[in-house]
């Protein structure tokens, strides 16, 4: 028998369609029933690749006895945090307020029928263990509290709503004068938390933090980026056979990951690897960028063009089972020469490093000189031997925001490494979004099985504009610039707070929830406000539209007091601040279509983070005035900042030198 979740697009919700729990997806039907029957809501938030979500599902949600208690006392709502990041943000924040500690997934919250939370936690075992109360015990206790302590619950709800109202950043009392001090202070904090031995920031668990690393690279903190990316590329967080990065490492050495692989990590890390290669010339980054791009192409792009969301941590109900090895199995697969090269390199001659019985591949020692061909042949054999294993489940929904991050990464890497296949992949994903998820002038957040739905969020619009700006630098298409401006128009109309500044996470006509966040902090992904300010400022440089830069300025003014007081965690807003202090420069190349690629290629091989490079063929119609430079028989280039341009440049090397000098100002 299936419950209501069988008809949902979310693979995570579909995983629970066979539960004996009387699940609802979030919506008015469930909320109305809670009000009518005066029952509390049990809200369970997770996602399809989540290991502990699976554990709680197997232990509790699949158990008819547990389900009977849930169904007796509660209206039960299951939420995919990837389809409904609005709900996840609100209730993770509520959990932090109520429990005075961080949340995570699965998130288990108990709500009044109006959606106000009054108690919660994360994973609970079915029966008490490891200091955690049993789930059934909790269900009984909370139901009793709902019957007997209603006044206290109502009072706490009022206090919680008041606390939510205080979360929003407040505009400064007087006009704000921006300076670079928050950037300097943030870099100082990053240097202080940097792990000089293993890379990354702080101790275990370790997350990639690509936006922090992008800020470091841009500001010349090359050692931080180089050490971190090298250790990640050599660690177990990176799939040494197939490419791609897992979500985080459970240890400080990047050795053992939490094995789920998320599109939203790999897109930004791919762009960062390309930039790190430009700065350092290290072929390790070129190799890992290539392997990661090929992994995205091979495993994460749908036949229709959109990118899938994630690969599960588990297979056959065991975390990491698809990825780990028995050393004897590896030895049997390889020749003696291959084993002698690979065993010390990947740590197979050491004790097992995963659950004391398996080996997870990581670079334990440098490869001995001349052993490159042996490593390559060994990897080919191991990749082939791993392929028939039961694979981790793939979440095949398409999310606009995560696709945008991958489009930007594939386009950036394709441009830097001159790989047309990666650029074509990014283009296919963009066209999928435009064809299936852009409807009546608005984005829809999620797509699966022929159905797109749910109004899109701030991240969807802001990230997609940035992705379009990257694709425009690979190949100028007027319709892409028009699309970016259409997205910006919705951003300003539906998401901006024109009085206080900044952007709400949800649109003006979105379902009314107990809180409307206006997020500034980066989490695993860059903040929507930071990306919006960054995108709009760059779009202003290409179009001359002052309303874009004014909205970016208002956003930065709103968050600037926070940036001054505690800049850690605001890397994306700081990148936007950098380009507000000094507008991005624009290199405009004009000439015949066949003459432009050598110029584009030369500039793509330079690290020019503050410069947009647009190669616009002669005869391109409907250009904004700032881009409408004359195109002669040979290529001419204009390097502009705002409305001010240098005299035309007719040499590739002179243009590259001018761009580098501008970037160093």
Number of strands: 20
- In round numbers, the mean pLDDT is 96
Structural class: alpha+beta
CATH topology of one domain: Glutaredoxin
Number of helices: 24
User: How big a fraction of the residues is strand?
Assistant: 5-15%
Distance between the termini: 66 Å
Helix content: 40-55%
Q: How is the biggest beta sheet arranged?
A: 5 strands, mixed
Structural commentary:
The protein is an alpha+beta fold. Among the domains are: about 5-165, Glutaredoxin (3-Layer(aba) Sandwich), CATH 3.40.30.10; about 325-390, no CATH class; about 585-665. Helices cover about 50% and strands about 10% of the residues. α20 runs antiparallel to α21 (about 545-565) and α20 (about 530-545) packs parallel to α22 (about 570-580). The mean pLDDT is about 95.
Could you list some keywords that capture this structure?
single chain, globular, Glutaredoxin, 4-stranded antiparallel beta sheet, alpha+beta, 24 helices, 5-stranded mixed beta sheet, 665 residues
Helices and strands in order, then pairings?
Elements: H1 11-15, E1 23-25, H2 28-37, E2 41-46, H3 51-61, H4 64-73, E3 75-80, H5 85-99, E4 107-111, E5 117-121, H6 135-148, H7 150-165, H8 181-193, H9 210-218, H10 222-234, E6 248-249, E7 257-258, E8 261-262, H11 263-280, H12 283-300, E9 310-311, E10 314-315, E11 318-319, H13 327-333, H14 336-346, H15 372-386, E12 394-395, E13 398-399, H16 400-417, H17 420-436, E14 438-439, E15 442-448, E16 451-455, H18 458-474, H19 478-495, H20 528-543, H21 546-565, H22 571-581, E17 585-591, H23 597-604, E18 611-617, E19 636-641, E20 644-645, H24 652-663
Parallel strand pairs: 1-3, 2-3, 17-18
Antiparallel strand pairs: 2-4, 4-5, 6-7, 8-9, 9-12, 10-11, 13-15, 14-15, 15-16, 17-19, 19-20
Helix pairs in contact: 4-6, 8-21, 9-11, 9-22, 10-11, 11-12, 11-16, 14-15, 16-17, 16-18, 18-19, 18-20, 20-21, 20-22, 21-22, 23-24
